[in-house]
Amino acid sequence: SVPLSFFGGLGAASGQGILLKGSNYLEAMANLDTVVFDKTGTLTTGKFQVTSVDPLAGTKEELLELAAYGEFHSNHPIAHSVKEAYGKALDPSMVGAAEEIAGFGVKTSVYTQNKETELYIGNARLMERQGIAVNAADSMAGTTLYIADKNTYLGSVTISDTIREDVPQALKGLRAAGVKKLVMLTGDKPEVGKLVGEKLGLDEVHGGLLPGDKVGKVEELLTKKHKDAALAFVGDGINDAPVLARADVGIAMGQIGSDAAVEAADVVIMTDELTKLVDTILIARKTVGIVK
Ligand code: ADP
Ligand code: MG
């Protein structure tokens, strides 16, 4: 049976917009030694600014419009950012079915001049997969989105994200609460990941990961942590539901990307304040302390 004061702990947490799916997660949160973060939308805002648009032919406006149509059906933070940067209304009858390729980008059909064009928008890995040669330099600092039709490279859009304001404070709070290892995993380019990791003083950063690679990294970190302590993964649920499920404590927070994420998570934080993680640990410690 569950000691009564656990309900007090779960209740205190829910009053703060923190939902725990069981009292066992209170115990795990009271004793975390590794916290693994997804990058986009978790440590960064997920609101990318477009820093350059480089069409191979035609105008920047045309390429950005095409990119916005390419992202029409996508719920990824990158997709929202591109659509916002284009800023004009999109005609739903212009786009056909879309296929989201996790860790790569999206494939869509766009109808222009009475013909259907197969459109690809995503990273260098997606272009390579499609066998499309990209004659453009990958920007070091930014995230580059390549746009191509079935056979031809059409141009690129470079975007860049910023670190969430409350992240340094939240990380400091986690360290103060005794968390030993702070790790970031990202599907974005290793160079972008490295920059964010250095700014935040993280212990480990792994970039260029596909969703399955993120699971592998978490499994590796699980073998390295103290056996009586827990590992938490924190993400927004976009392309990271499998890792949320694999961690001792999967924490979904912010603009949670999907119902699958809410299902895969053990803890759901209803706001995007990362400092809520520290609050959760403190509530958990208080509750577990009372029980013991
Ligand atoms: P993160 O691990 O940083 O949260 P994801 O795993 O969601 O990132 O995505 C990894 C990479 O895949 C992105 O940096 C981007 O290059 C590409 N990508 C994913 N979804 C999209 C999309 N909708 N449009 C364009 N590129 C995308
Ligand atoms: Mg993500």
TrEMBL record:
<comment type="similarity">
    <text>Belongs to the cation transport ATPase (P-type) (TC 3.A.3) family. Type IB subfamily.</text>
</comment>
<protein>
    <recommendedName>
        <fullName>Cd(2+)-exporting ATPase</fullName>
    </recommendedName>
</protein>
